[in-house]
Amino acid sequence: MPELPEVETIVRSLQNGGRGGQPLPGRRIDSADLLWRRTLADPTEAEFLGRLPGQTVQRLSRRAKLIQVHFDRDTLLIHLRMSGDLRVELISSEIQKHDRLLLNFTDGLRLAFNDTRKFGRVWLTDDPAALTSHLGPEPLDEQFTAADLYARLHLTQRLLKPLLLDQSFLAGLGNIYTDEALHRAGLHPLTPAGQLDEAAAALLLEAIRVTLREGILRNGASIDWVYRGGDFQNFFRVYGRSGQPCPICGAPVQRIIVGQRSTHFCPVCQPQGD
Question: Domains in the chain and their CATH numbers?
Fold first, then answer.
């Protein structure tokens, strides 16, 4: 599933052009084609298809793992989930097998939402904040401080790995970047959150930010056939490297299952406390 750096890369490409496509701001919608009904979470199909024509793309943004396409009246929220991807192409291009939604612009371009596994969802709303109010803080928001993270950590005794994956606790992290950040911070994934002192909380926040910024710099990680164009996978410290040497100490990276998720860590650099 695309995480914060991958989604941020897609948003920037749609805003400014890139990944083989042209920028979307300023383009006006002529029509939309909903090719898989369940892709649309809200509103009804009739309302969705009726509200979009005539609206112009103003800008694009990201909230957690959501892509937000801001029109002059409404906002389209897109969650790529497991296998979603977006293409900007000519309307004359051949529709691909797993295309689920097409936004056709008046200038002959279209935005295609392709989703092999059909888990992706879109919402059209005039109040995007209502759909994102449950999400936690953005880790790259400079107004979110180490003191804020420390306070949130001490509201729970949950283990660090599943807690950081909880989008209501902190927005945008997934399996890859959580494992990488915990290794950079030297924290075991099974550490109870409430055991972290203020210094450890500050170290964790900095590790999360450094990891995410590097991921964005490298256009995310391309580790399967879904997400295109990133190379952060070539710089993983622990994720997916079970049995291989830790880049810091040389000890074999270990893999365990935490909350039904594969979790990778170095037993030397990330010792488990009592």
Answer: 4-132 (3.20.190.10), 146-235 (1.10.8.50)
Q: How does strand 29-34 pair with strand 99-105?
A: antiparallel
Instruction: Identify the DSSP state of 21.
Output: B
Instruction: Tell me the backbone φ, ψ of residue 222, rounded to 5 degrees.
Output: -105, 100
Higher pLDDT, 25 or 226: 25
Q: Which two tokens stand for residue 228?
A: 């295109």
CA 27 to chain centre: 25
Long-range contacts of 9-14 (CB under 8 A, 24+ apart): 9/216, 9/219, 9/220, 9/229, 9/230, 10/67, 10/80, 10/86, 11/60, 11/61, 11/62, 11/67, 11/68, 14/60, 14/67, 14/69, 14/86, 14/88, 14/111
Task: Report how far residue 62's alpha carbon sits from residue 143's, in angstroms, rounded to the nearest whole number.
Answer: 17
Contact assessment for residue 180 and residue 237, using Cβ atoms and an 8 Å cutoff? yes
**Cα 55 to Cα 32: distance, rounded to the nearest angstrom:** 11
Question: For 114-143, what is the mean pLDDT?
Answer: 97
How far is residue 29's CA from residue 162's CA, in Å, rounded to a whole number? 40
Q: Which residues are catalytic?
A: 2-3, 65, 261
Q: What is the mean pLDDT of residues 44-66?
A: 98
* pLDDT score of 230: 85
